[in-house]
Write a structure and sequence with these properties.
By secondary structure, this protein is an alpha/beta fold. The protein has four domains: 131 residues, Rossmann fold; 163 residues, Rossmann fold, CATH 3.40.50; 69 residues, Helicase, Ruva Protein, domain 3 (Orthogonal Bundle), CATH 1.10.8.60; 56 residues, Orthogonal Bundle (Arc Repressor Mutant, subunit A), CATH 1.10.10.60. Helix content is 51%, strand content 13%. It has 20 helices and 14 strands. A five-stranded parallel β-sheet has the order 2-1-3-4-5, with helices on both faces. Strand 1, helix 1 and strand 2 form a beta-alpha-beta unit. Helix 13 packs across helix 15 and helix 19 crosses helix 20. The protein is globular and about 90 Å long. The termini are far apart. The relative contact order is 0.07.
Amino acid sequence: MSAEILIVDDNTDIRNIINELIIDAGYKTRIAANYNQALAEIDKKLPDVAILDVKLDKGDNDGIELLSHIKTKNKDVPVIIISGHANIEMAIKSLQHGAFEFIEKPFDQERLLNFVSRAVENYNLKKQNREYESKLFSSYEIIGDSKNTINIIDQIKKISLIESRVLINGPSGSGKELVARKIHKNSSRNKKSFIVLNGALLDSNKYELELFGEEKDNGSISYGALEKANKGTLLIDQISEIPLAIQSKILRVLTDQKFKRVNGNNDVTVDVRLICSSSKDLKKEIQMGNFREDLFHRINVFEINIEPLSQRISDIPLLIKYFSKKISENYNIKELDIDENNSYILNHNWKGNVRELRNLIERIAILQPDNREKISNIIKESLKNDNFDDQIAENSLSVPLKEAREKFEKEYLTIQLKKFNGNISKTANFVGMERSALHRKLKGLGIKEFN
């Protein structure tokens, strides 16, 4: 499919010259002769590349304003700025606002075509990367055999069949967005949009615009997340970071099932399934006055709690196998031979959770070591600052041998129990003890058995 180029210039002759030049090069074009026409074209459909004259009919910096408008919609769209009143200050200003290139009139046609060709290539590459990342993320499965993971998989199956609002709790990197995507994918809304609004990444002044959209003076509309997710699913990630004033407006939308765009007068009704996630304990946030209790009860119809990876040790070997296979396929290399029982991995505290584990395996794939020893060295180097063995050694230096041994045994056996989901027989077999002896040892160390 040929790229589409938007050409904006108030000079008819120049506009026609550029239009013919671009069409002859095999691209599709749209044209606009003034600021309002350009704004309408941009709001109607973003082009793959835009060529904007700086000075149109509205003022001296029309092109810069249009450039900024495009970037608020999609920062990846390349914009080539052209000007008959070029100076260094104007060129710098254009580039600071995100212009791909700046060219002055009269321009060399070959140079302009070269800019357009590079811009199209740049946009296509970024688009492919976005699609690749989205496809890759969407293709991930929830992997593990811990009780928490099995319970979450079961919850997703049940929740997907109904329309209830869902609150997903879990530490950063634990897979909250993946769980939300699986709920959407397995629901009757899976053919419609899945929109993510990250409360922690938004500018404090843009929450309303991002949620509700805006009606502009020229009649154009900028759609917010609620309308983009119509008939589909909206995930408000890190909802704890949404300001109280905006929380009350979200509550009103959930109550009235309608809202007004910023600067709008008419009610907008949408059909959206809302999923929220948080890395913070919202009940504590309520106590501190940072979160509305009435909103909490509205969004918390069904709750999913994801435990930290350090509490799901039995999931780690399965995740290592899964990511090793997946990432090796993505990099088109031989499958990584990583020891799933590597002590550095199993004993690491995994503050970054599943995301940190995946990043470690991707780092190994990038370095492409050709044997287990080299892989082990990469793992040690990556995790050495938080390594369990180092912590045990340090903690053991200041206590008598008997106490140090007991500390080590307690830590070691607790980890092995978690690794095997509390299964005494499997744990005993792995550590090389009789089942009855392990029972006595656990009781002697004060380790509580679990099933």
